[in-house]
């Protein structure tokens, strides 16, 4: 018997055909097929070749080819007959250090943006329009929440599209830009109008007082602010995502915090300036306010037509309203809490901290939701049964302490809360912002509220994104509006509770009631 086993010939259709292993089909430099002439018989006729299952030699080739073709593709299984979904791609295989390093700078930038917004709110709360039309305070969380309803959702959609290769060609890039910009203009105009209605209702219910002039002022200020802020921030987001892809940075880690860093400041500055200008024109030129409303609403059909012509945004145009509107209503409840708290002179110091605690919580949970959504998109499409979305209600241990990449990022984001807020509080104190002196007991209560807020939000994000995925809903379009709105409500509520407790226990050193 020969020491090297002979290959048995293959019988097919009455002809005996040679059998050739897979490793003889490729040349030593990998991936190059042998010449077709090698398969010709001696008489020049073609012969059938049966390829043996030498998968081990070809596995490396398949892995490399898959990664080169699309970053979202995964390595093929050893068993080619098994129909399994692809595993997550390399962009999400990050260490805790790399996640923290990529998130840290945008997180600090976003935090300083919220600090600036808090300083602005601390100043403008004494303007006439905020004193005599206090419903403007109700608009603040709702319009600042537009960064979660619109800009962060836009950033999450575009980050996912970039990570799975849907923005690689100029044609695809232009289609995504035009469709998404038109879409957020439609959403901004509608949400701004509805936010003004909510502000009028929430302002009327406690006092029973209604002014048509103030209602039109709120409508004009809200719609104009939402439209202009979304236009500016949308353009910035597109530039950030394109730039981060070219620099080899995961857009999920940087896009949403940068949206928030400028979002709060730009939106609050626009709201304050526009409402103050329109308030001054209220008596002498009463027609200005309704004219502003009519102008922005008249532009709606143009944006709707553009968004409908784009397949990437058509579905969101029809089905993406529920989270945006519900999130606006949730944020407006937070605005009502802010209005009732800040209107009390004992708690005027709360104004400067509200955008900070709400902004930080919203930024961190938006990063986590965007990362989880991208992770799921790389494994299939919404509604698919997948190993990456197995749970309906995760336990806190699986959310924060498992070896999963999303659990790792949740730990990193949670650990950023305390050092981040300490930097922001020190900045506010150095700039002599607010009406509150930083004492140890105040910092303890503030940090407790901030940690509890982020802990709740990260857990809800883990459950919500997977739940929406299992219900055939795209988390990029649905999860972030809910999460940032909940961040506004939870953050404002916990901060107001902390200020009330500090006032009740008599922490006079912190000058809470100053």
UniProtKB/TrEMBL annotation:
Q: Where in the cell is it found?
A: Membrane
Annotated GO MF terms? inorganic cation transmembrane transporter activity; monoatomic cation transmembrane transporter activity
Q: Name one GO biological process term.
A: metal ion transport
Q: Which family does it belong to?
A: Belongs to the SLC41A transporter family.
Q: Which UniProt keywords apply?
A: Ion transport, Magnesium, Membrane, Transmembrane, Transmembrane helix, Transport
The organism's place on the tree of life at top rank: Eukaryota
- Output the Pfam families linked to this UniProt entry: MgtE
Question: Protein name, please?
Answer: Solute carrier family 41 member
Against InterPro entries, the record matches this protein to: SLC41_membr_dom, SLC41_membr_dom_sf, SLC41A1-3
Question: Taking every annotated instance into account, which residue ranges of this chain make up the domain SLC41A/MgtE integral membrane?
Answer: 140-274, 354-497
- Hydrolase keyword on record: no
Its transmembrane ranges are 103-123, 181-203, 215-242, 254-274, 286-306, 318-338, 410-428, 440-460, 480-505
Q: Transmembrane helix: present as a keyword of the record?
A: yes
- Source organism of the structure: Crotophaga sulcirostris (Groove-billed ani)
Q: What does this protein do?
A: Acts as a magnesium transporter.
| Region annotated Disordered, chain positions | 1-45, 61-93
Topology in the lipid bilayer: Multi-pass membrane protein
This entry carries the following GO cellular component terms, namely: plasma membrane
